Inverse folding.
C-alpha cells in the first residue's frame, strides 16, 4: 500500500527561525508535489519536483527530492507570520504524470512573533 | 482566465437525500478528480476520470458516483447521503500524460449531512 507520511504534523515556530518538514513515501515515484492550504481555502501548488536531486526555491521556502531515500524536504528559512498555513506533500499514485496523487496528512505550521 | 469552479460552495442536507456537487473546468484538461478532506485524514481520492466516458474508483468511493459526459464537467453524486459524508470536497484537474502531473484545485464544497 502506498503511504505518504509527513512529519511533524504540527509545527509552531518563532519568526526568524529555520525549520524543515519531512515527507517520506513508500513507492518508487520520481514525482513529488508540495501544496499550501490557508484555513478555509483551496490548495495552492508550491513546488513540482520531477527528478532525483531536484531542488526548487521560492522566497523563504526550498524543496528538495531524494528518490533513492524516498524523501522530500521543505525547508523554511527565517520564518515569517505569512507562512502560517498547512503544507501537504503528494506523490503520483502510480508514478505517472496523470495527476493521480496521494497526499500526506499535512503539516500545520504556525509562525508566532 | 481558465479556472475550475465548484458549486454549491456550502450545502446542508439530510440523511438519505441525494446530493450532487458540480465541478466545471475551463482549462480543457483531460483528467479530473474528486477528493474529500477530513481532519486527521488529509485528502483522500473518491473518483477520477482520464477523459470523456472514463470513470474510476478511488480509495473511498463507496456511496459516491461520477459521470463524465464532456471534458469540462465531473459532477459528484451522493446517492443517499450519510452523516459520515460530512466533509469538504475538492475537485481538481490535471492536463494528463506527458505533463508535470500537477493538480489544480477548485475552491471546495463544504457538505454537512444532518
Amino acid at each position: 500500500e502506498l503511504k505518504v507520511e509527513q512529519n511533524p504534523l504540527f509545527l509552531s515556530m518563532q519568526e526568524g527561525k529555520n525549520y524543515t518538514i519531512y515527507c517520506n513515501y513508500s513507492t518508487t515515484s520520481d514525482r513529488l508535489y508540495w501544496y499550501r492550504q490557508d484555513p478555509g481555502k483551496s490548495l495552492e501548488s508550491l513546488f513540482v519536483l520531477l527528478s532525483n536531486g531536484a531542488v526548487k526555491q521560492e522566497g523563504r521556502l526550498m524543496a528538495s527530492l531524494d528518490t533513492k531515500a524516498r524523501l522530500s524536504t521543505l525547508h523554511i528559512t527565517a520564518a515569517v507570520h505569512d507562512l502560517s498555513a498547512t503544507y501537504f506533500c503528494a506523490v503520483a499514485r502510480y508514478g505517472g504524470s496523470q495527476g493521480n496523487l496521494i497526499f500526506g496528512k499535512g503539516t500545520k505550521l504556525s509562525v508566532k512573533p | 482566465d481558465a479556472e475550475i469552479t465548484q458549486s454549491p460552495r456550502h450545502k446542508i442536507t439530510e440523511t438519505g437525500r441525494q446530493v450532487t456537487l458540480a465541478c466545471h473546468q475551463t482549462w480543457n484538461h483531460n483528467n479530473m478528480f474528486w477528493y474529500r478532506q477530513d481532519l486527521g485524514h488529509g485528502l483522500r481520492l473518491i473518483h477520477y476520470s482520464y477523459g470523456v466516458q472514463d470513470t474510476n474508483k478511488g480509495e473511498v468511493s463507496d456511496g459516491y458516483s461520477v459521470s463524465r459526459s464532456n471534458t469540462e464537467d465531473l459532477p459528484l453524486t451522493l446517492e443517499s447521503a450519510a452523516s459520515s459524508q460530512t466533509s469538504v470536497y475538492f475537485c481538481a484537474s490535471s492536463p494528463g500524460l506527458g505533463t508535470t502531473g500537477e493538480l489544480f484545485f477548485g475552491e471546495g464544497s463544504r457538505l454537512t449531512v444532518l
User: Anything to note?
Assistant: The mean pLDDT of chain A is 94. Chain A touches chain B through 24 residues (CB under 8 Å). Chain A has no helices and eleven strands. The CA atoms of residues 35 and 45 of chain A lie 5 Å apart.
